[in-house]
Amino acid sequence: MKQFEHYSLQAYNSFGLDVEARYFVEYESVADIQELLQSGLLNGKRVLAMGGGSNLLFLDQFNGVVLHSGIVGIEEKEHDADFVTLRIGSGTEWDAVCAYAAAHNLGGIENLSGIPGETGAAAVQNIGAYGVEIKDVITAVETIALENGKQCYFTNANCNYGYRDSIFKQSEKGKHLVTAIEIKLCCKPVINREYGALNDYLCNKGHCEIADLREAVIAIRNTKLPDPKKLGNAGSFFKNPVIPLKEFEVLRNEYPTMPSYSVGSEWMKIPAAWLIEQSGWKGKNLGNAGVYEKQPLVLVNRGVRSGKEIAALANAVIKSVEEKFGIALEPEVNFI
């Protein structure tokens, strides 16, 4: 277990903000966590469990204890003719898991390739892309309860997964450290290339393997999303809003080209990127915070000194969209 005081988090947030944690602890086992809880270091202090920081916006220095998982590794737990169950340490880079699956032609997470961050945080956030969410493959999430150090085992159903949501962001928020997850992948995968951009990229390919789809996903992401190492960002900053069908029909009369996706029979999902672009923000800056010119769903750091500048831009975008469409955007990024 590694412990530091006054520790820079610049390498642990994809906006690249120069913020500091009063304490930083990296645990490498369940025993480390239990030892930490017994030490009393967390008593009376703010505690933040984080992965790679690809979904966080720090508004100030963090006067508390940051807990980071150093539990890494991918192991095969079960295997039959149709499926493989993998157990993955929470500190494992998520894209390394996708690369492992592609190398073994295991299907289920190839559409989630290229998403930055670590596996534990991916399970908490319920990451998703190109019609797939991590909840589609998770069978269990293993945690340690911060209250008493006990090991807990959440089945998929226990996790109460929703759109970029889980029990770990709701009733159990701040109460657990994820140590590992289990995912079930298909040994005889069916290639899902129905998403328009994927189909266009693969149109000249006949037979496709999982590795081909992973390559396509990464290539498409790279055309739309800036590299956080070159231009600080947290990927998609806002959730795609879901509105009642009746409300959508009224808006469609006024905006016939508004794209949409049905969510059940009574709800419609509207791409937040379209709403932001139509509100005039694509490629615009507010101070040193900007809306990315290639993908308006992404807010970027063009030299901000504080995360509050990015938050101010986000609030301005939210206000503009609500004034124009009557739709309230919700950040996908967590403000700390």
The main sheet orders its strands as 6-7-12-10-11
- Helix percentage range: 25-40%
Any low-confidence stretches, pLDDT <50, length ≥5? none
**What's the helix-strand series?**
EEHEEEEEHHEEEEEHHEEHEEHEEEHE
Account of the protein in words:
This protein has 336 residues and is α+β, with helices and mostly antiparallel strands. The protein has eight helices and 20 strands. It has helices at 30-39, 94-103, 119-125, 196-201, 210-224, 245-254, 272-278, 307-325, and strands at residues 2-8, 20-27, 46-50, 56-57, 62-69, 74-79, 83-89, 128-129, 132-133, 138-145, 151-155, 176-186, 233-236, 242-244, 261-263, 267-269, 285-286, 289-291, 298-301, 334-335.
Q: Any key phrases for this structure?
A:
alpha+beta; 336 residues; 4-stranded mixed β-sheet; 5-stranded antiparallel β-sheet; single chain; 8 helices
